[in-house]
Amino acid sequence: MVEGLQARGWVRLDGFLSETDARELSAESVEAWESGEFRKAGVGRGEQRVIREDIRRDHVLWLEPGTAGPAAQRYLAKLEELRSAINRSLFLGLFDFEGHFAVYPPGAFYKAHLDRHRGTADRVVTAILYLNDGWVPADGGRLKLWTEPGSQEGPAEWVEPKLGTLVVFLAGDHWHEVEMASRTRMSVTGWFRVRGA
Ligand SMILES: O=C(O)CCC(=O)C(=O)O
Ligand SMILES: [Fe+2]
Asked: Ligand 1 pocket by C-beta < 6 Å: which residues?
């Protein structure tokens, strides 16, 4: 994975989590969703955060290492290993991870964007894990990831949000969007960050 990230700036891995682990994580997300713990995702950060349903319609629940369920804790531990592996090979100096569960109800989408807030550079690497069992092409909801840095044209990779699939890419380089899904689409999205950039 680290080699792929180094060579191309993005990488996709099916089966990053075993089916059992991914199902358990998915169950934790469903439980939190059903007990109303998610909120509508915003655009921008801090005081600038606003709800923009023309841009994104997902709902999120931030993962707090202290209170996350056992499957989420295990996933965070795996990401911690990935973070050190990336640092050892790419010298990116990633110091932590922040992430959230995301739910896209039927009809939801997220228009093309870069994962970086205006005027900041702390989110360096994006990691998205999908939690959808039995996803089929007719369900839509693919991630479109433009493969050329900085470009919102040209070649793109389409990723179906299948249970256990992980996508990792350089957050400031790769434009991406989520096409509309016709069934509920669940994932964990997060970012490895550098300090104070
Ligand atoms: O779920 C996905 O495929 C992408 C989500 C995304 O781009 C984001 O939350 O910033
Ligand atoms: Fe994104």
From this structure: 102, 110, 115, 128, 143, 176, 178, 187, 189
Question: Would you state the pLDDT for residue 197?
Answer: 56
Q: Closest ligand 1 atom, CA of 143?
A: 3
N-terminal to C-terminal alpha carbon distance within the chain? 25
Look at residue 65 in the predicted model and tell me its pLDDT. Answer: 83
Domain boundaries, the chain: 2-45+55-193
The ipTM estimated for the assembled molecules is 0.99
Please name the residue ranges forming H helices in 68-195. Answer: 70-90
Query: Which residues lie across from 181 on neighbouring strands?
Result: 140
Distance 94 CA to ligand 2 centre (A): 18
Q: Report the helix count and the strand count for the chain, using DSSP H and E.
A: 3, 11
Give the type of residue at 39.
R
Model pTM score: 0.96
Q: How far is the CA of 85 from the centre of ligand 1 (A)?
A: 23
Q: Give tens-digit pLDDT for 161-193.
A: 999 999 999 999 999 999 999 999 999 999 999
Report CA(141)–ligand 2 centroid distance (Å).
14
Is the pLDDT higher at 118 or at 176?
176
Q: Return the CATH fold of 2-45+55-193.
A: Jelly Rolls (2.60.120)
